[in-house]
Amino acid sequence: MKKNLLFFLAICLFALQSCSVNSEITYHKDSASTTIMDLDMKDAMQMMKSMVPDSAKNDQKKLAELEKLPRTWTSLYEMEKKEGKLKTEDPDSIKIMKKIFMKSNAEGKEITGFSLKMDHFTKADYDGLTNFSKEEKLPIDQMALNSWDGKTLVINTDQFSLDGLKEIMSGKDMRDGEISAEQAGSMMKMMYKSVGTTLKFENKIKSISGKHDWVSKIDDYSVKINYDLDALFGDAKDKKSLKNSDKKIVIVTE
Fold this sequence. Notes:
Elements: H1 7-15, E1 19-27, E2 33-40, H2 42-49, H3 57-66, E3 74-75, H4 76-82, H5 91-97, E4 100-107, E5 110-121, H6 123-132, E6 147-148, E7 152-156, H7 163-169, H8 181-191, E8 192-201, E9 205-209, E10 215-219, E11 222-226, H9 229-233, E12 248-253
Parallel strand pairs: 1-8
Antiparallel strand pairs: 1-2, 2-5, 3-4, 4-5, 6-7, 7-12, 8-11, 9-12, 10-11
């Protein structure tokens, strides 16, 4: 996979500045799901642009590349085909590429981050990503991998670890050196000021079984997960005991 499609990883790694990651997963009635992940890097971008040029030449190059991303949703297939870098003719890989979309976000002319969308993904599509993205792992929201049959969602709260993001950073740092999963977790604590996921359903929520402190019902069609980054990546003194920590949460829709 073309490396410059995952700019937010490199930018977060060298910026080590507050970023916010928000995901929205829509669970469709046909058992598929659509995930949109937004990375707000407004504070980091302002900090990087204020750095003196001599000490931030590489950073500025990364910013310039990020600004080349399309401002509207564009599929990975379209992007690579347009640049003449489409290297596969495998129909399964092309099918997945046509379901992955990216775009940059901006306020006026200033880039503030970017968004990634996995449109109407099935379980088979997620399974296919294993072979599709060998070189560069996609930042998959772990919640999209929970069991969903079109009516019932079974959430495994052990997946609240954010291993999907941490795994991408493991093994690669700013100098392409090796870093451990533990170091990656510490880096995430410095990088992100908030990480959250909103789960949306096409049908009305009928019941919710199980409780967890980080999970709350927003309305009849949506549930919010707010990750406690201190609990996940902080020191022992930062971690608070959970009042509710059921291993499974089952959401049944009408």
